[in-house]
From TrEMBL:
This is dTDP-4-dehydrorhamnose 3,5-epimerase. GO terms for molecular function: dTDP-4-dehydrorhamnose 3,5-epimerase activity. The active site is at 64 (proton acceptor), 133 (proton donor). Keywords: Isomerase. Pfam families: dTDP_sugar_isom (PF00908). Homodimer. Its EC number is 5.1.3.13. Pathway: Carbohydrate biosynthesis; dTDP-L-rhamnose biosynthesis.
Length: 200
């Protein structure tokens, strides 16, 4: 061990992971994933799929989950900056409905592990962000679920985002504080609030 620092969050099942970065005047090297180090830290998940996305500033993706085949996700940013969020959807959990967020950037090289049973999403803060994540189960299109990104009862504090809740997950009236309009897919503007959504 010693190659990673694992910090449990106040919500059980969420972890911020910081790799050891070896750098000099030529650049740097780091291990982005080492199964042995993860297991020594108590994280014994098995990953079956890697994904990567690229998004422009102001894009908000989420909040997503799979219902019958939930995915644990190990997420990181290789270019740019995002604010990454998980919301606890586990019925019976003492933190049900609570959220945790962390800024992931190409500079801080932090990773965020989100166990099964959470809704997940992120907001792009840089001009461009390339986002990578490992999943513990395969993506299944018919199993998708979602949670309204701006549910006032959850109260996610998206950084640099200004606007007033219109009563729906619409992006209308929201922008980053530099004037960049919020950009959300039509599908993500249709999800329900917590009290009317799926829970595990």
């Amino acid at each position: 061990m010693g190659q990673i620092k694992v910090t449990p969050c106040h919500i059980e099942g969420l972890y911020v992971i910081e790799p050891t970065v070896h750098g000099d005047q030529r650049g740097y090297f780091m291990e982005t994933y080492n199964q042995r180090d993860m297991e020594e830290a108590g994280l014994t998940m098995n990953f079956v799929q890697d994904n990567q996305s690229c998004s422009s500033k102001g894009v908000l993706r989420g909040l997503h989950f799979q219902k019958e085949h939930p995915q644990g996700k190990l997420v990181r940013v290789v270019r740019g900056s995002v604010f990454d969020v998980a919301v606890d959807l586990r019925s019976g959990s003492p933190t049900y409905g609570q959220w945790f967020g962390v800024e992931l950037t190409e500079e801080n090289k932090k990773q965020f592990y989100i166990s099964e049973g959470f809704a997940h999403g992120f907001l792009v803060l840089s001009d461009i962000a390339e986002f990578c994540y490992k999943c513990t189960d395969f993506y299944r299109p018919g199993d998708e679920g979602g949670l309204a990104w701006n549910d006032p009862k959850i109260g996610i504090q998206w950084p640099h985002l200004v606007g007033s809740y219109p009563g729906t997950p619409s992006a209308a009236g929201y922008a980053l504080d530099d004037g960049t309009p919020l950009n959300i897919s039509e599908k993500d503007q249709q999800w329900e609030v917590l009290e009317r959504t799926f829970h595990f």
